[in-house]
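// run 5 | inverse folding | seed 20
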């Protein structure tokens, strides 16, 4: 029995000394690594006029299907949020909507993801005047890939993905107020460091 305890204790030694590989954890699971390809996804959702185009006007949101590969060549702000029509999620969405022209000027697409269905997303877009896509992840499959899922909700996390599909920055435990400006500043910093 003592021998087994000693062996078990020795097995934990690398973890105690910090020699084990470092994985980034957040409420919601293991986060994807910075500097690595962003986890792939393809989800149904809604977008104004059914388009990802920056020229889309506020109109009735139409169904779309979007995958990471559809967004190659542009910066992507992929933000996960718990639920349409809740106070924090509304504040966060309004912030991204308010700064949308600035994101588009930086060749960036903003996309929100939650477990809500397309009907709820369409209603939320209409109610808040959102003209960027909202995607539905009802079972949390994509949210899990991004370490952003505690059933039955996506967690409030944001990811900045470069045009080549590499994850450049992530935010966890996001405070909705002012978050869009924080992401925009990091996008501009990332772009200037590349130039």
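// decoded
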């Amino acid at each position: 029995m003592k021998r087994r305890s000693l062996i078990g204790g020795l097995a934990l030694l690398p973890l105690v000394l910090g020699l084990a590989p470092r994985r980034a954890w957040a409420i919601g699971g293991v986060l994807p690594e910075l500097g690595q390809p962003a986890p792939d996804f393809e989800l149904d959702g809604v977008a104004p006029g059914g388009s990802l185009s920056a020229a889309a006007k506020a109109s009735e949101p139409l169904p779309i299907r979007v995958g990471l590969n559809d967004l190659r060549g542009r910066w992507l702000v992929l933000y996960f949020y718990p639920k349409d029509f809740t106070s924090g999620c509304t504040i966060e969405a309004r912030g991204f909507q308010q700064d949308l022209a600035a994101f588009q000027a930086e060749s960036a697409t903003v996309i929100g993801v939650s477990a809500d269905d397309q009907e709820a997303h369409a209603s939320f877009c209409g109610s808040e005047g959102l003209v960027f896509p909202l995607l539905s992840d009802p079972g949390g499959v994509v949210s899990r890939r991004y370490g952003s899922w505690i059933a039955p909700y996506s967690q409030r996390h944001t990811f900045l993905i470069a045009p080549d599909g590499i994850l450049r920055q992530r935010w966890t435990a996001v405070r909705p107020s002012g978050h869009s400006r924080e992401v925009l500043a990091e996008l501009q910093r990332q772009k200037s460091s590349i130039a």
